[in-house]
Structure formats: C-alpha cells, structure tokens
Amino acid sequence: MKQPSIRRYGAQIIAAQSAARHISAAAAVILLACLSSGCNQVLGLDPTHEISPNAYVCTCQCSNIGAPFVGVSEAVCLPDNLNPNKNTITLTQVDLDHDCEGRVNENVAGIVQQCVSKILNCGCIAAPIATMLTAAECDVGCTPEDLDPSCSNFDTHVNPAVKTATNIPGQPPVCLIASSDPPNPVPDPLVAGLFGHNSKCDVSGDVTVMRGGDTETQPASGVVNLTGSPCPGGSCKVGMSYRIDHVNNFSFDSFAGFESVEFQHLFASGNSIPEGATLDSAGNGTFAVSSTQNYGTGRRSNQIAGIEVSSDESAFTGTNSQPLDMGVDWINHKCHLSGALFGQLEDADTLVTADVSGDIENEPPAANAGPAQTVECTSAAGAGISLDGSASSDPENNIALYVWRQGSRSGEEIGNNPVLHVSQGIGGNQTYFLRVVDTFGQSSEDSTSVKVVDSTPPAISNVTASPNVLWPPNQKLVGVTLSVSDSDQCDPNPVCKIAQITSNEPIAPSDAQITGTLTAQLSAARLGSGSGRIYTLAVQCTDAAGDVSTANTTVLVPHDKAG
C-alpha cells in the first residue's frame, strides 16, 4: 500500500493536459504555480504535517467459557519502527495485524489477567486499514512503564493520575491516542483505555465549513465518548472525546483561484481536558474556549472545468475558539454536541463547526457490593458469609463479568459470581472489592466490609462439686473440686474458674479459700443454732472473644448427719 502522503503529480499533470482546452490563460497561470508548489493545502491551510498514518484501531475481545465477550477498541499509536513519520516505510495490513496481534495483545492479555480477572482470555485484531488514523501526539511517543505487580499503576476509574502503565514487564510499551489532556496532548498509557468508566454515544448530524464568505454544510456521523460517572437528575463533571469519520465531501466554487475545490475524505477527532464540562441537573454543560484539542485530515481536489488538476492530503490541528455545548439525557440515553470544533486553526479564516446528536449505545455499569455486615460465628473457624453484588446494575443490562477480590483492589481473586459464599475467620473487618465489567469493556467498582464476631457466651449445662457435703463439722478445711459441663460453638475450650464463694452464714476469709481455677478449701463448720451451712460457689466461663457466662453449685455442712 502506498503512503497517503505521497503526491501523485504525474497523474495530476496528465489530468491537467486533458483539460487544457477548457482552461483560461489566467487559470493556467494559477495551475502552473500550484503544480510547482504542490498545492499542499486542505481547507486553505498550510498543513502542520502531511497525512501519514501513525495510529490505527486495535480491537481486543476477552472472554471465558460461557461468558459474554468483553470488547475494547482503542486507537493505538504505531511503534517507532512502523511510524511513517519517523521512517521511510510502506505500511501494509500485515504490519498492522502483526503489531495488534503481537505487541498490543501480549500487553492487554497480561494486564487483564493480573489486574482484572484471571479467568479472562484476550485476543486482539487490527481494524481494516481504511480506519488508520493520524494524531500529532503519536509522533511524540510515551514513557514506557511496567505494570506494577500490585496493579498500583492500573486503576479502572478511581484516579486517572495513577493510570500510567504502558506494558507488562518484558514487553514494549503501548501508547493510545489521547482521550484527554489538552492543550499539549501526549499519548495515553495503555491502561488508560482499558476497563474505564466511559459512555459511548453514536452520533450523526451536520458539519459546516466556513472560510471567508463561503459556507457549506454536509451530513456526518461518528462517535462521542463521555468520561465520568452518569448522573441522571444530578450534576457531574465529564470529559469528552469524539471521532467524526463519515463526512460527505465539501465543494466550493471559485475557491483559491480555481473554478471549484472539493474537500474529500475529511476526518476529525479530538478530546477535552479531564472533567472539562459540568453538567447541570438537566444534563447541559459547556466546554470552555480552548479546552479541547482537535485533529483533522483530508484531501483537497482542485478542479478546473470539472477536471481535477491537482490535489494533496494533509493533517491539521486546532482548538475551540468558542464554547462547545454538551448535552446528555441520561434517562433517555441521548447526547448532543454542538459548536466550533475547529475554531482556531493555522488559518484563522477557517471555521469548522459540528451539530451532532444521537443515542448512547453504552453506559458504564454501577457496582454494588452490598452493605457492611456483622456475622455471628458458627464454629471456631469463623462463619460462612454471603457477598451479594446482585444489586449492581447496568443501563443496557449487559454486565458480562463480576470479579470479587479480598483485601484490596489487586488482592486475591476469590470468585466471579454476583452472589458469592466464602468463609471468614473471627476477628477484625475484612474488606471485599467488587468489580463489574460490561460487554463494552467498561467497569465500575465498589467495596464492602464484613466482620465475623463471637458475641454468644459459653453455655454451662451443669456444675457439680466433689464432695458436696462436708461432715463431720469439725472446723477443719476440706478440699473441694468442681466439674463443669460447658460448650461454645466458636471456642472449643472456654476457660472456667471459681469466681466467688458465699455462704448463708457469716464466714471468715479463712473459711472459704479458692486454691485453683476449679478447686477450693471449705471449712467443715456451721452454727449450732442454725439449720446448716450452705456454701455457694459461683463459676465463670469465658470464651476467646471475652464473652462470659456464670453458674452456681453448692456445698452443704448439715446441722446433723441426717441432714
């Protein structure tokens, strides 16, 4: 395949010769001047650079047996060795296939396995070569950064500042066309485009080109992506990126000295600063002046007497010189974008505006890990608990994957069902993280905590003393041993002890002495005028959680032997 930036002057001269009899002398002078200079202008601009494809769309699909496909499509910058702006190279579809199926696929698969779910298997394929893109930042390149084993530089949507990994260890980096960061865009790291929190809106409408006194409007279609959490009925901040890649040709009469000029194969894409627009409760917001960075490519066909006499292709950049209006109807899944996409170009006389709207094809899911729980233990090992993420939702009902992790976002993956039953030991709070992923590769995360407690004291079924009758009443101390029958479902060995000894008769401290956890010495004595002495021994049993239960037993010193 020949590079699109190569000018085919031989064909242009032949076309000019065939049309020579229709061309006036004045027009011929313009034509010769144009041919000598190359007429390298699109939309009347001196291009920043000619079109060279330095990016393309790579689509990756991840799935496990029985689960829906999770798809991620990203505009990938070519590596330096395949970038026509850095090398004299003729790209082929084979080159793109090899790069997407090799370099990109290895990194995507490794990142997904480590930081999303081990059950996912991923494969990537390049889009047809017709979708190749050009973006200025792809020539800048990005700083390679290995994925951290803890996934600390991969984050689904919580903090864009930590989405910095470009590759897994041992693999070359992957850079993506920037989704946000004007006014000086640099490529996004690979993880910035994986499992994010974006809404995709398919749009169509009009694109208008105004240059000087000439204005023409043509139908166009494409995609607008919104970055940020949906906020139906509320206010939220969003970022925006767009791609308008189906635009009809524009034709202008008496343009730049030619009888007519046609602008063909126009393509526009751009992105805003992060959270560049604040949507109100009605879903309306505005991107301020110069808060977007936009790229365009196209082909200019200069014509005389209906014959193309010269042409060129170029790329150009610009920002919005006027506020750019954004409207989102989250409830009815609609979006609208209008305003001057290219309002500050290299040529200040040229203005490109868009007025497009359409249906939101996909919004990110909303993870719901359920409320915090306190669960009573059922054994010494703890308890079986239920993690319930079934309240998670998705506007399109296309959740493809649930991922539960224990301890942290990158902790042990413990299950992939909406409701998960696991065991947890007795002790402090344990945190569980739930990530849900939809079929468009968008994700959401939530966490919950569970505490397994032992709040039930041991059950004491029986306490006996041996001996339980002291005779004769000779004032001597007698050793007494207690036996306790107890049970506790969470502690097999509660600690039991004699807590206190009391009597129905006045006694001295020397009359009742605790000598061990379940042993005592009691005086075989009683009042002669009484009916007998009754010692009450209070037993206290405590489990490992500190729960306490008590029970009593008695030892009798009868008034007489018959009792």
Can you tag this structure with a few keywords?
563 residues, disordered N terminus, 3 helices, five-stranded mixed sheet, Immunoglobulin-like, twelve-stranded antiparallel sheet, single chain, 8% helix, mainly beta
- Give the N-terminus to C-terminus distance in angstroms: 116 Å
Strand content: over 45%
Tell me the total number of β-strands.
Answer: 31
Structural class: mainly beta
Mean pLDDT: 86
Helix percent reads under 10%
Count of runs of 4 or more consecutive helical residues: 3
Unreliable stretches covering 5 or more consecutive residues = 1-41, 45-49
**Principal-axes shape call:** rod-shaped
Q: Domains counted in the coordinates: how many?
A: 3
Largest sheet: 12 strands, antiparallel
Task: Give the gist of this structure.
With 563 residues, this protein is mainly beta. The chain contains 3 helices and 31 strands.
Description of the molecule:
This protein is 8% helix and 45% strand. With 563 residues, it is mainly β. It has 3 domains: 9-362, no CATH class; 373-453, Immunoglobulins (Immunoglobulin-like, Sandwich), CATH 2.60.40.10; 459-558, Immunoglobulin-like (Sandwich), CATH 2.60.40. The strands form 7 sheets. Strands 6, 7, 8, 9, 10, 11, 12, 13, 14, 15, 16 and 17 form a 12-stranded antiparallel beta sheet that branches. Strands 18-24-23-20-21 form a 5-stranded mixed beta sheet, with no helix packed on it. A hairpin with an 8-residue loop joins strand 7 (214-227) and strand 8 (236-247). The termini are far apart. Mean pLDDT is 86; it is low at 1-41 and 45-49.
